[in-house]
Design a protein that fits this description.
This protein is α/β, with parallel strands linked by helices and about 325 residues long. The protein has helices spanning about 1-15, 20-25, 45-60, 75-85, 95-100, 115-135, 175-185, 200-205, 215-220, 245-250, 255-285, 300-315, 320-330, and strands at about 30-35, 65-70, 90-95, 140-155, 170-175, 190-195, 210, 230, 235-245, 290-295.
């Protein structure tokens, strides 16, 4: 009964009036295959499943979404490879995967650009069309922006200042250019692994430090192998759901409209859920024994490290003009 109510409310949040004409019903159903790392039963999958039900209803079952959750299709680099090969049609990606399609999108992940959701929302509102155009140029259509929560540092040892990481074994996602650069700045040695390899690495202590949102750490059970979490966050983990443009353009005009309109509503509902659940997850990990670390005494050192990361990646990963535009849209001063 609880799941039925959850789906009912989620459907109502982003359903659109009307539907497709009866003539469309005779068409063969199109199944769009999308991959995600989100575990089954997670906040993401609850909304994605409700989104699929809405699309089926609004298209009279002529369009369906088939999600491969829990990393069943591999890591995000595998999603990108399979999309390019036509083995899947789209994916819900974090900034790591998005950056493999449009490198400049990583400007949204550099430390110190924004720490609050309101700032991220301003950036998306002002520069959203510009980013969508970048994906279009690469052959992908953006169906909606998503969040993954606030970026925090989890560790087995207390981390109060950037230099403390040098004595630890920090995990870096294989394709994460941002945190890898941060570790270079502070003089730490990264342990490069894919997401599915992280939990076993925590069990063996191959890894004892990692960046993640509280929600991700709870969903993937990483927090059970760690003792500390940073009280403040260095940014927001961004994400988006995309689909190959050729698959999108193969749909009828009515089907495209339903997919886009329900996608916008679905991701708005998703972001509300993620932001709420990330706050709850932060409270949960504290209740479960993790200790919050106050880094405010060394705030200047963290800010300087973040500034160095931004400067070192400017021109290599994103143009300075784009960084300046993001900072201005966020209402911050460089």
């Amino acid at each position: 009964m609880k799941l039925r109510l959850t789906l009912t409310f989620a459907l109502a949040a982003f359903a659109i009036p009307g539907g497709l004409s009866r003539s469309v019903m005779a068409e063969q159903a199109v199944v769009l295959r999308l991959a995600t790392l989100a575990p089954s039963g997670s906040s993401w999958m609850k909304v994605f499943n409700a989104w699929n039900l809405t699309i089926k209803k609004q298209t009279n079952d002529t369009v369906k979404l088939r999600f491969y959750d829990g990393g069943s299709q591999g890591d995000e680099r595998d999603f990108v490879r399979k999309m390019r090969a036509g083995q899947i049609d789209g994916a819900a990606l974090t900034g790591i995967g998005l950056g493999q399609l449009v490198r400049s999108i990583l400007v949204l992940s550099v430390p110190g650009v924004f720490e609050e959701y309101e700032q991220l929302d301003k950036v998306r509102a002002e520069l959203g069309e510009r980013f969508e155009g970048m994906f279009n140029d690469q052959g992908y259509t953006l169906l909606g922006w998503g969040d993954v929560g606030k970026t925090r540092l989890f560790s087995m040892e207390k981390i109060e200042r950037p230099s403390d990481i040098k004595k630890l074994r920090p995990w870096v996602w294989k394709d994460d250019l941002i945190f890898a650069e941060f570790l270079k700045v502070v003089g730490a040695n990264p342990i490069r692994l894919g997401v599915p390899e992280v939990y076993p690495a925590l069990q063996t202590r191959m890894v004892d430090t990692l960046p993640a949102s509280a929600l991700a750490a709870v969903s993937l059970q990483w927090f059970t192998r760690l003792k500390y979490i940073s009280q403040s966050n260095s940014g927001i983990i961004v994400g988006a759901t995309i689909i190959r443009t050729d698959k999108f353009e193969a749909l009828t005009e009515d089907q495209q409209t339903v997919l886009i309109d329900t996608g916008i509503r679905a991701h708005k509902a998703l972001n509300r859920s993620i932001r709420r659940d990330d706050d709850k997850s932060y409270a949960t990990v504290l209740k479960r024994g993790l200790t919050a670390v106050d880094t405010s005494e060394h705030k200047a050192e963290w800010q300087e490290a973040g500034k160095q990361v931004r400067e070192r990646l400017t021109g290599r990963v994103y143009p300075k003009s784009l960084l300046d535009a993001v900072i201005a849209a966020a209402g911050k001063q460089e």
